[in-house]
């Protein structure tokens, strides 16, 4: 089984829109939305949820006021300043390390497990999809990313599907690292701006660090052709495969408003041919 | 006053608003770029960097001479960052959250702390604008401690403008907590609206007053405006889609400098915020 992970470094370059377009072209695949912080793929896929599960990750300390003798040891030990002078734990600040729990001389601190999100298995008009929703202000986004990818793989195996297309999160931190391990290849969707160049360089370094082959496409390439060329030059110098360019076109937004992928929305256009070509190149690279 | 600029969805124009607002207001302002995974503000500000320092987080170092292999350190660690196998102690520094529990629990005082590099922070200025940002080391997973380090350079004598990362989880909270106002930047599309709602819920949780900038305000649909009305989320500025703005941004230039008529609009935006914060 092959897994393509679509990432970008910078947000808003068109990852989800392009990934959804590939979903309409690819066969025998499972879709996976690993941008669990701000998942948007479902807005285009209109999933029919078949299963939903709680996601449990990490614990939070809770001080039982009836047993607490206010000795202050927990406050001294807590490196997150999560415990107030009134011996109340701020759940947003609590890291879930449990040090206070283990050292409390009165065993007055409970350590319940958090339900910090949900994940789903759905059917869509393009095939099965695994997606999730991390609770607001929660931690453990990396663990949830790992979970949805594992579940998507299981689902693909069960249904004898040989491809997983994963919509990754922005950035280079914890959830992105969790979305890269074991991927067959990543597609970096870059935009031709100084920020786009800067961010694609960092996320490509990250993929290289995890030894995942990198493909690059430039979205909205005609907004600044000089920057597009700079991105492609950087890609070539670092042995990344350039798979194509997509022109700027308001149809991306218009199709999103209609809840459609861009290929469902447009007729024969430059957009269609450029996305078709990118997908052909990706298939060649993945050997599928 | 601290104004944090956030969005939920990435690429909606946080950095555009943060940099142009900071530059429009002239002196007594500092800009802290807390999007440490992908910091971009410096590309537009071109600050003179006066100080650059690496930031470390403590991770355990075991003295095997002193260790009696009791496994207490491995048992207390919730992050599986220490394993004891017979008479070998393995540490996995990249999994460590720096809680210090292992050091505290060790009966032989065999554990000290060394550092894992989180990244770099750089402090500088551009004319009278004070500037600081952090850059997460590529391969490092944990951004909140580096964000807190950038924020430790907050100067109470200045207006502080924070460029926050996208999303709604712990890094964003680290960049918004303690702010006096959160300025949300969105685009009026289904993706923009969906992620804005999540971000608004996060700001509500922190009980911070908030307002909205709609970027590329003439694309998409009415969803964001309807939601803003329902939520009593004041729309403080609208920036239409303009190919000239997109082009200025793509070259790393500031709108308020290339299209000076925008300077007054960003100043007005600040006056609006001042009125709300009181």
Task: Please tell me about this protein's structure.
Chain A is elongated. The mean pLDDT of chain A is 96. By secondary structure, chain A is of the alpha/beta class. Chain A has helices at residues 15-25, 42-45, 73-77, 99-103, 141-158, 174-180, 194-209, 225-237, 251-257, 262-265, 270-286, and strands at residues 2-7, 29-33, 48-59, 62-63, 109-110, 113-124, 127-134, 163-167, 185-190, 214-219, 241-246. With 278 residues, chain B is of the alpha/beta class. Helices cover 35% and strands 28% of the residues of chain B. Chain B has eleven helices and eleven strands. In chain B, the strands form two sheets. A nine-stranded mixed sheet of chain B has the order 3-6-7-2-8-1-9-10-11, with helices on both faces. Chain B has a two-stranded antiparallel ribbon with strand order 4-5. Chain B is elongated. The mean pLDDT of chain B is 97.
Write a concise synopsis of the structure shown.
The complex is a heterodimer of chains A (288) and B (278). With 288 residues, chain A is α/β, with parallel strands linked by helices.
Explain the layout of strands and helices:
The complex is a heterodimer of chains A (288) and B (278).
Chain A: E1 2-7, H1 15-25, E2 29-33, H2 42-45, E3 48-59, E4 62-63, H3 73-77, H4 99-103, E5 109-110, E6 113-124, E7 127-134, H5 141-158, E8 163-167, H6 174-180, E9 185-190, H7 194-209, E10 214-219, H8 225-237, E11 241-246, H9 251-257, H10 262-265, H11 270-286
Parallel strand pairs in A: 1-8, 1-9, 2-7, 2-8, 9-10, 10-11
Antiparallel strand pairs in A: 3-6, 4-5, 6-7
Helix pairs in contact in A: 5-6, 7-8
Chain B: E1 2-6, H1 14-24, E2 29-33, H2 41-45, E3 48-62, H3 72-76, E4 82-85, E5 88-91, H4 101-105, E6 111-126, E7 129-136, H5 144-151, E8 159-163, H6 170-176, E9 181-186, H7 190-206, E10 210-215, H8 223-231, E11 235-239, H9 243-250, H10 255-258, H11 261-277
Parallel strand pairs in B: 1-8, 1-9, 2-7, 2-8, 9-10, 10-11
Antiparallel strand pairs in B: 3-6, 4-5, 6-7
């Amino acid at each position: 089984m092959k897994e393509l992970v679509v990432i970008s470094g910078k947000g808003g370059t068109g990852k989800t829109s392009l990934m959804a377009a590939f979903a309409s072209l690819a066969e025998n695949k499972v879709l996976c939305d690993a941008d669990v912080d701000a998942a948007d793929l479902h807005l285009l896929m209109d999933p029919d949820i078949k299963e939903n599960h709680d996601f449990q990750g990490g614990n939070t300390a809770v001080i039982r006021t009836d047993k607490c003798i206010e000795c202050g040891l927990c406050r001294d030990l807590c490196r997150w300043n999560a415990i107030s002078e009134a011996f109340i734990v701020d759940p947003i600040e609590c890291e879930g390390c449990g040090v206070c729990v283990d050292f409390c001389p009165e065993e007055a601190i409970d350590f319940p497990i958090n339900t910090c999100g949900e994940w789903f298995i759905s059917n869509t008009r393009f095939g099965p999809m695994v997606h999730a929703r991390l609770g607001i202000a929660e931690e453990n986004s990396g663990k949830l990313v790992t979970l949805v990818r594992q579940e998507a793989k299981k689902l693909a195996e069960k249904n004898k599907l040989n491809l997983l297309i994963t919509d990754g999160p922005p950035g280079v931190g914890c959830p992105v690292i969790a979305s890269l391990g074991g991927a067959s290849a990543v597609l970096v969707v870059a935009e031709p701006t100084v920020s786009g160049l800067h961010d694609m360089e960092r996320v490509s370094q990250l993929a290289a660090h995890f030894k995942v082959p990198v493909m690059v496409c430039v979205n909205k390439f005609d907004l600044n052709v000089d920057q597009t060329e700079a991105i492609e030059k950087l890609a070539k110098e670092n042995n990344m495969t350039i798979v194509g360019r997509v022109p700027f076109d308001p149809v991306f937004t218009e199709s999103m408003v209609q809840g459609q992928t861009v290929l469902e929305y447009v007729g024969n256009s430059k957009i269609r041919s450029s996305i078709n070509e990118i997908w052909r190149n990706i298939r060649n690279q993945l050997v599928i | 006053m601290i104004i944090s600029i956030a969005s939920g969805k990435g690429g909606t124009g946080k950095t555009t608003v943060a940099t142009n607002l900071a530059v429009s207001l002239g002196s007594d302002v500092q800009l802290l770029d807390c999007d440490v995974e992908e910091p971009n503000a410096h590309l537009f500000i071109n600050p003179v960097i006066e100080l650059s320092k690496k930031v470390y987080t403590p991770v355990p170092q075991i003295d095997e001479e002193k260790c009696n292999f009791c496994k207490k350190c491995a048992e207390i660690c919730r992050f599986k960052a220490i394993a004891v196998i017979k008479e070998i102690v393995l540490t996995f520094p990249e999994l460590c959250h720096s809680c210090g529990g292992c050091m505290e629990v060790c009966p032989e005082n065999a554990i000290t702390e060394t550092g894992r590099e989180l990244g770099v922070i750089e402090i500088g200025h551009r004319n009278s604008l004070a500037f600081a940002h952090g850059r997460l080391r590529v391969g490092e997973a944990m951004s909140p401690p580096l964000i807190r380090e950038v924020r430790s350079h907050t100067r109470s004598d200045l207006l502080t403008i924070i460029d926050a990362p996208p999303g709604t989880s712990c890094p964003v909270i680290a960049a918004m907590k303690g702010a006096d106002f959160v300025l949300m930047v969105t685009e009026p599309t289904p993706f923009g609206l969906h992620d804005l709602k999540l971000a608004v819920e996060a700001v509500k949780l922190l009980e911070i007053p908030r307002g909205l900038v709609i970027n590329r305000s003439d694309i998409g649909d009415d969803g964001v405006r309807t939601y803003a009305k329902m939520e009593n989320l004041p729309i403080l500025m609208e920036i239409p889609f303009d190919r000239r703005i997109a082009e200025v941004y793509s070259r790393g230039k500031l709108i308020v400098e290339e299209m000076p008529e925008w300077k007054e609009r960003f100043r007005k935006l600040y006056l609006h915020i001042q009125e709300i914060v009181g």
